[in-house]
């Protein structure tokens, strides 16, 4: 065996040891490692969305009819004015196909990218705390879907309100890119608003914000929720505004309660560690 061959395993094991030394048991990483981790998580999430978009491609006709139904229903109501979605460019159908397929992929792959989000912001969880990841997905995915369903419930009322502002004798000929951009943005805004309380609990578990800090800002949060609900409720209808505001407020209250419980658990554990060290 040559000197080079004898040195090769040692250098290989040395590289392994250096790699092991980089791994912090508490999950701390350098900036470069954070960027690598972010890139890896983004790639996995993008692959999940792409796989879901393939499924969305086959659901395109059904989704188009479902999302366009509030427009068609308005034209078939008491108002006899012409109301329809009209393509006005050669490449528009393909562009819309890609948009709706990607949106479907985002919804279908929500367990994947939500888990990647959790795994990135919570890299230092111990093995005994890994169950929080499953709880995060179990809570976030239904809430995200519920937000989208809430937006779909709002959509016909929004169409009714905005189209009702048209002067007499006019028609509602809508370009699909404008209409579906409005619809998809509404859906995503409601879906993300529903999972924000879960993310709030996550950053509290990271120790970035305490439950008392969140609770002290409850007036501002309730005001923001009220403003968002009033903007989402077409015509400022009180009943619709209440149905939007109530679940968001309850979710915020639940998030605050969980954060306070987590703060108490953290303080108790710290007190036990100090007493054990003494």
Question: Can you characterise this structure?
Answer:
- This protein has one domain (32-277).
- Helix 6 packs antiparallel against helix 7 (176-205).
- It is mainly α and 278 residues long.
- It starts with a helix and ends with a helix.
- It has helices at 3-22, 31-58, 60-75, 92-108, 110-121, 131-163, 176-205, 211-216, 218-232, 238-277; strands at 83-85, 172-174.
- It contains ten helices and two strands; from the N terminus they run H-H-H-E-H-H-H-E-H-H-H-H.
Identify the overall geometry: flat
Largest sheet: 2 strands, parallel
Count of helical regions: 10
Average pLDDT confidence is 77
Cα distance spanning the termini: 56 Å
Strand content: under 5%
Helices and strands in order, then pairings?
Layout: H1 3-22, H2 31-58, H3 60-75, E1 83-85, H4 92-108, H5 110-121, H6 131-163, E2 172-174, H7 176-205, H8 211-216, H9 218-232, H10 238-277
Parallel strand pairs: 1-2
Helix pairs in contact: 2-4, 2-5, 3-6, 4-7, 5-6, 6-7, 7-10, 9-10
What labels describe this entry?
10 helices, 278 residues, 78% helix, 2 strands, flat, 2% strand, two-stranded parallel ribbon, mainly alpha
Q: What's the gist of this structure?
A:
With 278 residues, this protein is mainly alpha-helical. The protein has helices at 3-22, 31-58, 60-75, 92-108, 110-121, 131-163, 176-205, 211-216, 218-232, 238-277; strands spanning 83-85, 172-174.
